[in-house]
Amino acid sequence: IKQVNTPASSTKVTNKRDQQKNGTKNFEQLMMAGSNMSPTKQVSEKTAEDKEEVKKPLPPPPKEFLYSDPGVKIGNGKFGPVNLIIQDGKLWALKIVPKTTIDKTKRIEHVKNEKFILKMLRRNSTRSELPALRSGASQRNGTRAGRRDDAQDDSSVEGTSMSVRENKEPLDFIMKLKETFVDEENVNFVFEYLPGQDLFWILSNEHNLNLGKDRKRKDWVLFYGAEILCALDTLHSRHIIYRDMKPDNVMIDYDGHIKLIDFGFAKQLCERNNFRTRTNCGTIGYTSPEILLGLTQGYSFSVDIWSFGILLAELLSGSLPFEHK
């Protein structure tokens, strides 16, 4: 995470005269430079200079960070707010993680993991195939994955995911990280801005949604479930375990497709450990038995499939399947 020096009081970028003078002279230096002139001449020349500066186009904003001040709050993360900002002339989401929160919760590794995982995914963005589908019924029958005339596949999450992935890149279902930076008080993540809501909101407000007369809950659960499965495949094919699947972490983008967010619990597994890990983490209600029991042999990618099943059950029924057990 690169260190950026920003003012402690405000992150707003101001249009100062020293910026227009390439940062070499400020107002006092200009006055000292004109000390050999008469006071009248100094004032007249300075006035002319000010008029000339008004006519000049403003210098381009610095490449670093141009914020709305103080930023429009659009959400709350686990440890801090998420603000809407302007950067490079576009809207972005600024996730702010206070350093004090990181120290108190010993969340340093989670912050590092989130940056590492998302940066690594962008560097390695090759298309992948869903392992479960390679030996699926569609291939055994010699049909093309996702064909609309395959009635059996077309009515399942697995079959729908085959159709969805034909028109989407594997990383389209994962939130994009633009960059990270550190100021005096916070660790900051600049993400793509998603104007939609998360699945938790959709689940809570389904009765207000205009789904059409013939659209039922099963239809949108099937669609979103297929895209979530594609997102998990993208991670697992790169040996990344997610470990925090829940409605709150599935956002809907401008075009109505899902975006997986919050990679604080994500981790890349390695072959020397047989692609297994033992860390106890996740969200109660969605966490798999292997994690809760703390098995000595650890767990692997299957815990994400368990959480995915819990999520599907909740989207279909409106409640967690094992909430009272």
From TrEMBL:
Record key words, sorted: ATP-binding, Kinase, Nucleotide-binding, Serine/threonine-protein kinase, Transferase
Pfam families found in the cross-reference section: Pkinase (PF00069)
Region (Disordered): 1-69, 127-162
InterPro entries listed in its UniProt record: Kinase-like_dom_sf, Prot_kinase_dom, Ser/Thr_kinase_AS
Comp. bias (Polar residues): 1-13
Biased composition (Basic and acidic residues): 43-56
Regions annotated as coiled coil: none
Any one annotated GO CC term: cAMP-dependent protein kinase complex
Species this protein is from: Favella ehrenbergii
Highest rank taxon of the organism: Eukaryota
Location of the Protein kinase domain: 68-325
GO molecular function: ATP binding; cAMP-dependent protein kinase activity
Gene3D superfamilies with a match to the protein in the record: Phosphorylase Kinase, domain 1 (3.30.200.20), Transferase(Phosphotransferase) domain 1 (1.10.510.10)
Protein name: Protein kinase domain-containing protein
